Amino acid sequence: MLLIDKKLFKQGASMIEPFDEEQVTNIGYDLRTDCFFLDTNTSKKEVDLAPGDTVFVRTTETLDLPNDMAAAVQLRNSRIRQGLSLTAPIYQPGHKSKVFFRVTNATKQVIHLDSEKGIGYLVFIQLEEPVEKPYNGAFQNEDAFVGMSTYRGTLADDVTDLEKKVDTVKNIEKNVYGNVLSIMGIFIGIFSLINVNLSLTVANAAMATLLTFNFATVGAIAFLIGLINAILPEGKNHKMIWWASGIAFALSVAVQFVLK
């Protein structure tokens, strides 16, 4: 059975320190944020939570449960709509500790968190009778946060692997676009050469004019392919392409002097 506001007003001070009646809701107690733990030894009063990032929250309140009472941390509705998710234990009968819980940014946007605004609330579960074995585990009387370093290290490795995979996919995508552009440039060049030669042949152009236009067209094609290849992450033969372009343009000019 959940404790409602009337009973919380009477029993709250014996279970919550410091207790503030203004924080009592109809079936729970709004927790106030003390700080955010980035790791076991680092805490801040405010954080910018990147997409997928996780922090542990320590509340202002210390919980002291009797042997016939359990408590659960729930995420406020406004925070659910904001895009946060919350993971927390069931606080067992006899547990005395600062309240800690973990929040994760489940959105694609950065979420700013600060100690001025609450995130979670407690609901109290009245048991039918006191338990025979009250809680006496590793997190009894926990005030300074413990037990996060291994978790953070594992998370950091996962994030690093994910970032590498994202970079790999981006490079593949860039290569595909570059290759498509290169192929398009080659086809444009082939059709341009055919068109130039047909046009000059029909017009009975001189050999010097024919060679000049062909060399200039090849130079332009090589220059275009060089530009396209330059955008590839691992483009090859950049210098060869630029040399080919320069030589073709030079030959187009030289023909005018040789076959003048």
Amount of helix: 40-55%
Order of helices and strands: HEEEEEEEHEEEEEHHH
| Percent strand | 15-25%
Give start-end ranges of low-pLDDT stretches.
149-154
Supply Rg: 35 Å
CATH class of the largest domain: Mainly Beta
Query: CA-to-CA gap between the ends?
Result: 104 Å
Helix/strand-derived class? Answer: alpha+beta
What is the total number of structural domains?
Answer: 2
Number of strands: 12
Question: Topology of this structure?
Answer:
Blueprint: H1 5-15, E1 16-17, E2 29-30, E3 33-39, E4 42-44, E5 46-49, E6 54-64, E7 69-75, H2 77-82, E8 84-87, E9 90-91, E10 96-105, E11 111-114, E12 120-126, H3 149-202, H4 207-230, H5 238-258
Antiparallel strand pairs: 1-6, 2-12, 3-4, 3-6, 5-11, 6-10, 7-9, 7-12, 8-10
Helix pairs in contact: 3-4, 4-5
Description:
The protein is an alpha+beta fold. It folds into two domains: 5-150, Deoxyuridine 5'-Triphosphate Nucleotidohydrolase, Chain A (Distorted Sandwich); 162-258. 45% of the residues lie in helices and 24% in strands. It is built from five helices and twelve strands. The chain has helices spanning 5-15, 77-82, 149-202, 207-230, 238-258, and strands spanning 16-17, 29-30, 33-39, 42-44, 46-49, 54-64, 69-75, 84-87, 90-91, 96-105, 111-114, 120-126. Strands 1, 3, 4, 6, 8 and 10 form a six-stranded antiparallel sheet that branches. A four-stranded antiparallel sheet has the order 2-12-7-9. A two-stranded antiparallel ribbon has the order 5-11. Strand 3 (33-39) and strand 4 form a beta hairpin. Helix 3 (149-202) packs antiparallel against helix 4 and helix 4 runs antiparallel to helix 5. The longest helix has 54 residues, at 149-202. The radius of gyration is 35 Å and the shape is rod-shaped. The model is unreliable at 149-154 (pLDDT under 50).
